[in-house]
Structures are given as structure tokens and as C-alpha cells.
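Q: Convert this sequence to C-alpha cells.
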Amino acid sequence: MSGILAPQEQKDLQKFLKFLSLKTVQVIVQSRLGDKVHTRSKPNAMGQDWFNLAIDDIPEITDETKKAMSGRLTSVDVPMCIEISLKT
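A:
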């Protein structure tokens, strides 16, 4: 198995990493909001529902994530750090 990806594989990987990063932040931030939510998984994922998560994205979280990432994607060399400020 070669360590070099074909151009289409590289494009697919970048797309996957982008959606993984955005959905990861949604899950982490929404889990810290303190709201009790009951959701069901989606056993037959379609389109962007790659991760079978039935949580709706909050646009503000997506916007802030995109601004923070500044067009960069997470990688093995550059980990993603999510800082959450708690107000009590």
C-alpha cells in the first residue's frame, strides 16, 4: 500500500476532515450548553450526515469555527484545540 494519495483521494480526505472538524466542535460545544437533548442516530446516513449524528448544527458555532480555522484543516501535525469559557 502506497503512502501517496491520488488527487481525488486527497480531495475526499480534505472534505472528510473539514466535516469531521466542524461536527466535532458542534458536538463538544453543544454538550457544554447544559440543555438536555434527546436525539436519535441516523442509521442510513445521507449527504453530510457522515457521522450518523442527529444533532442540528448551530450556525453561530459553525461560523466561529470557520473563523478560528481560517481555512486551515486539522492534521496529524497540527492538533485542534477547543477552548470553552464557562459563565456561572
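Residues 42 and 49 are 8 Å apart (CA to CA).
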